[in-house]
Amino acid sequence: MDSRGDGAMTDLQTASYLLINGFHWYLYRRLLTLFLGQRRVGCPAEAAGYLCAYVLNSLCFLLFGVPLLNLASSLLPLLLLSLLYRAPHWQRLWSALVIYAASFLLDTLVFLLMPVHTSPLGNLVSALLLFIMALVLEKRCPSSEKELQPDGPFYWFAVLLIPSTSIAIVILLFYFAHCPAWLSLFVDGMLILLNLLVFHLYRQVGRSYYAQYRARILEQQNQAYANEVALYQCGERELRTLRHDMRNHLAALHLLAGQQDTGALQGYLEQFSKCLEPSALWASSGNPELDSLINFKLAEARRAGAQVRAELRLPAGLSLPLFTVNTILGNLLDNAVEGLARCPQKELSLALWADRGLCRLRVENTFDGTLLQDHEGNFKTRKAETSLHGMGLDSVRRALSSLDGFLQVRIEGRRFIAEAIWYLPEHPQTTDITS
After folding, report:
1. How far apart are CA 91 and CA 85, in angstroms?
2. N- or C-end of the chain: fewer Cβ atoms within 10 A?
């Protein structure tokens, strides 16, 4: 920075410190929210709490500059701010200590590597490193809001490139450009704003992507309900028709029995028994949402000419997050139906069991032997429209992780087998259905 004018320099250093310290406390909020989840107060109270912590910490540094007091004015407000969240006491204490320890270690590392006179530069570099840590943790830690957001090399490239480039620009300006202090302050502010805006826009795009995916799942669920209603209406019509024709059937049976025509009687009874076969209703476990989705997807496979088999052992009134389970079931059955499309020998089997606190799902289908994979070995859709289908098995894994479950995929000859296991919150009595 330029050293012209002690008073002006002090003012600019103060402004630089306040700017970067505000960025630090913004990052503390992101990390506390990530670790502790839902807050117990509204947004205005939360904002007031963080503003008070920022002002207290800044005043202690600017007025006194005592290291021990600076440490206390950072750690104690963090501990108090953790009380704003609905989390156990030990989790609040642990989160505040971990966040402060990470920030302290980054500060120490930066100031050990840089000369003493580069204090403003070190503050910004430390804040940007903490920002990188927050971005990494936000993608690694499970979150219902982000569990189905698109993820890939581009995000990690941006995480490394944008803050790192900002650090490089600040260092180059400080050591080589010899720009005025006010210009350095302006550049610092613009770089902080740029980093925040880029990743805020990425988060908004991710939320929009997630909303589209959720809308597709809900539309699929509505179609499943409509299919279920159609099946029941069809069954009701068949039952009314059977009741209407029952007198005629009994008369025909009575006539054949009187004629002692055993062959004709047997043939008539076989035809009559076919009329009594239920409509294509594979799932009837007492869980309407799951049953309707399974019946809808298996009906698609049947219309595609597949031989379908389903085995269900489920507790009635199964208590599970509906959207999450629909994501798991819907994606695995979608993959199976897609695999059947190009296969001459179409077979699909579904098994869903719940026992001893665990739920196990197995979907097996034949396919034509051709699979597309990306450079990381993940299976890819062969559909022309890939904007939403590309999530595939990855979205299933993310949904399962929220239930402490996992997914295993294997190929046996020309059979694709996907098995998912997750924990159940309750252990009600199961219903055994095989079709």
Report:
1. 10
2. C
Q: Are 307 and 169 within one domain?
A: no
Length of the chain (residues): 435
For 72-96, how does the pLDDT look when each residue is reduced to its tens digit (9 = 90+)? 888 999 999 999 998 888 889 999 9
- Both structure tokens of 131: 């920002």
Predicted local distance difference test score (pLDDT) of residue 98: 92
**Structural domain contains residue 243:** no
Q: Are 435 and 314 in contact (CB under 8 A)?
A: no
**Among candidates 319, 263, 260, which has minimal Cα distance to 290?**
319
Contact 257, 265 (CB under 8 A): yes
Residues 119 and 377: beta-carbon distance below 8 Å: no
Q: Could you tell me if residue 138 is inside a domain?
A: yes
Give residues with Cβ within 8 angstroms of 424, minimum separation 6: 315, 318, 319, 320, 354, 357, 358, 359
Supply the CATH number for residue 388's domain.
3.30.565.10
What is the torsional sign of CA 249, 252, 254, 256?
A: negative
Element containing residue 311 per DSSP (H, E) = strand 307-315
Share in percent of the chain as helix, strand, coil (round to 5): 65, 10, 20
Query: Of the candidates 184, 199, 217, which is a domain's last residue?
Result: 217
The reply to whether 162 and 29 lie within a common domain is yes
Asked if residue 225 is part of any domain, the answer here is: no
Residues 208 and 332 in one domain: no
pLDDT band at 26 (very low <50, low <70, confident <90, very high): very high
Burial class (CB within 10 angstroms; exposed 0-12, middle 13-18, buried 19+) of 323:
middle
Residue 277: C-alpha distances to residues 234, 271, 283, 286 (Å): 12, 10, 15, 20
Report the domain count for the chain: 2
210 shares its domain with 293: no
Instruction: Please check the confidence at residue 238 and state whether its pLDDT lies above 50.
Output: yes
Task: Please state the three-class secondary structure of 378-397 as a single string.
Answer: CEECCCCCCCCHHHHHHHHH
Largest Cα separation within the chain, whole Å, is 122
* pLDDT of residue 289 exceeding 80: no
Question: In this structure, is residue 246 part of a structural domain?
Answer: no
Range of the domain at 320: 281-434
Residue 308 DSSP SS3: strand
